[in-house]
Amino acid sequence: LLRNISVIGLHWRQYRLGEPEWVRRIQNDMYSLYRQGRLTPHVMHTYPMEGFAEALEVLEAGRVHGKVVLSARHVQ
Known about the structure:
This protein has about 80 residues and is of the alpha+beta class. It contains 3 helices and 2 strands, in the order H-H-E-H-E.
């Protein structure tokens, strides 16, 4: 990819089915790191539920840098 950036992903469902206790422990560890402020995912934009079509357009166009969030209680 450009600028030596890579994208890595995995199919989380297989882990949930095969090793549910391990997944539960890892998720709890991640939530703990997030609460401590040691894990800070980049949220590019938060859309209200009514803006889901715009959010999908941004995703489809590949203009996402970080996470796109749909919120039932939208706060800008």
